[in-house]
Amino acid sequence: MRKQRAIVIGATGAAGQNVVESLANHPWFELVALAASSRSAGMTYAQAIEGAQFFEKTPSDEVLGMKVLDVEKASPKDYDLAFSALPSEVAKVAEPRFAERIPVISTASAYRYEPDVPIFLPDVNPKHAKLLKMQREKHGWEGFICPGPNCTTVGLVVSLKPLMDAYGVRAIHVVSEQSLSGAGEKGLRLDSPYRQNATRNVLPFIDGEEGKVESETNKILGKLSGEGVKGAGIIIGATCTRVDVQTVHTEAVYVDTKKPCSAEEAKEAMRSYVSEAQRLKLPSMPEKTIIVFDEPEMPQPKLHRKYGGDVTLVGRLRKDPVFKNGLAYVVTSDNLDKGAGGGAVQSAEYLKAKRYF
Known about the structure:
Layout: E1 4-9, H1 14-22, E2 29-36, H2 45-48, H3 61-64, E3 68-70, E4 81-84, H4 88-99, E5 103-106, H5 131-139, E6 144-147, H6 151-167, E7 169-178, H7 185-188, H8 193-198, E8 202-203, H9 209-220, E9 223-225, E10 228-230, E11 235-243, E12 249-257, H10 263-271, H11 276-279, E13 290-292, E14 312-319, E15 326-333, H12 341-353
Parallel strand pairs: 1-2, 1-4, 2-3, 4-5, 5-6, 7-11, 13-14
Antiparallel strand pairs: 7-12, 8-11, 9-10, 12-15, 14-15
Helix pairs in contact: 1-12, 6-9
């Protein structure tokens, strides 16, 4: 199979760098171009990100030597697909221009809430990919825009999906402890005032985050209807905080299921969950989406990547007395390898395997 020629737009920021890293040596996609704002255009990639490199694995000399294109001038006809890590305001203009010709797999929030746009996780809501055909027809595009969720939503919906399927979910309350890297460059730069304020501290508020978790969860777990997605109708309360952890989000989740189930039944539902994306054996998709621990000291963000950045870890699953059919558990999810670039690559793999492009 010929490798698909990929461009990363918004390549110089923290999310864009994660997409670049996730595409390294990919068997299906070849990174051939990088684009960013006019400030970076004409520079080599190494020059454009000098002093603000957030890679865990440094890219090849070939990638670092690529000339950065101006995202406003880059031509989509030269590529097979685009990965977008643009700021939302820029994405509102750039993503549709690229989608006229090629698929756009996005980490941005600009179009997540449009009726014909899925908030896509291939191991949770693969059927929502059908919205992309509706989107193409509506706009007359050859491509489409396919965003993933906010990184905080990812671990929550992955862990809820097996419970939703087996027992239904009436209500949840979630408290997040979100890592510094989830804030992007301001959370990663050591000289950032935001980073300095978060050091040895807990910031009790993240602007806009709680609303995203509440709305995205219902859309992702909802069902397709003739005009888009009918929300799951789950009552959701979220409290989102920032903590002094470099990478991996942790969440304490409290669930009221529609049908009663024991903690052991809930564990079994999660352990036995297999999505279509797993059955397709996609290159970046883990064999198991969820790993459930019986050990009370797990999961931990520090130990998460020992089990793989693209898996969701669940522990401390127990009955909870607050809700009628209450369950409580702790979940960790890698906000980069699953919640940003890695998740975008998984989405592209699924859509390619299912011949959406």
